[in-house]
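Reproducibility note. Readers wishing to regenerate the assembly model reported in the main text can use the exact inputs given here. Chain order matters: entities are listed in the order in which they were concatenated for prediction.
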Amino acid sequence: MDADGFDLEQFLPFRLNRAAEFIALRFAASYRAQYGLTRPEWRTLAALGSSGRMTATEIGVHSTMHKTKVSRAVFALEERRWLKRSRNGGDRRVEQLELTPAGVAAYGEVAGLARAYDAELAELLGEEGIEALSLGLSAVERAIASRRA
Amino acid sequence: MDADGFDLEQFLPFRLNRAAEFIALRFAASYRAQYGLTRPEWRTLAALGSSGRMTATEIGVHSTMHKTKVSRAVFALEERRWLKRSRNGGDRRVEQLELTPAGVAAYGEVAGLARAYDAELAELLGEEGIEALSLGLSAVERAIASRRA
DNA sequence: AATAGACAGTTACGTTTGAAACCATATTGA
DNA sequence: TCAATATGGTTTCAAACGTAACTGTCTATT
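Running the prediction on these inputs yields the following structure tokens for the assembly.
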């Protein structure tokens, strides 16, 4: 710890970022190698796969992704015919996004990788590690939700 | 949760990444606005400020940063005269990196921001939240350390 | 010694990123 | 009813990024 009372090793943003980077990187390598997906693409696919139907803005808020990232990921997934857009509702600025059957199938496959990685993580971190982490993340999630209000 | 048993909302890499992004982004905005530092630059400055003297490779391992990121951050900090290099030891490939007095001073100032943000976080997440998160991150850190072995 | 491989760090190059400007549509309020 | 302003999403452009190839040095094998 420094003279001025700041300790990098205890600084949460640093620790969180390092941990997230480490964990995400290893998983990204696998979906990247097998499906050629980028991180924003996988995250968009997963958001739609698990929530069914969302707008681009909703995806961004839900996953904390910049809107241009979402916009490009949506475009890429659309090009693969994994996603379709529609401007249904009264507000014609808004695009409803949804996976195509091919997209749903793809999502299922990548979700398989995800489950495998999850199991690997469970072993790597141990049960108490997982539980503590999950609890801590819930606190952050509450904070995110309240900050948005 | 999906038919195939994968639940994005429970998937640790996703939750961790979202949390880290959210928390890092707000902090990055402040050191960026006040000192014009990029994320790798702040992280490099902080690593040296708190550990005193490291090589580029050590910084990369310690902070999980790609070596080209470290290389560029070191260059940028050197340009600002916040950092100096020296090839002391027997191995002339290795560069010992160290902050200049100006660098130490700058580090002290940004560390002030960091402490303020830390306090803000403590309030935002609550004591139990912080503790659980810290415990969980320790598990990840052990995993990182063991993976490297 | 001489050669091959490993390793620290940099550079070149194509890709990804985000801030800001943009377009189109909605909403507000004068 | 018509500005003025806000919002969803895209595009532009300069900066940041990572892969792969590079330089220089070290180590191991012969």
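We highlight two features of this model. The first strand of chain B starts at residue 53 and ends at 54. Chain B touches chain A through 60 residues (CB under 8 Å).
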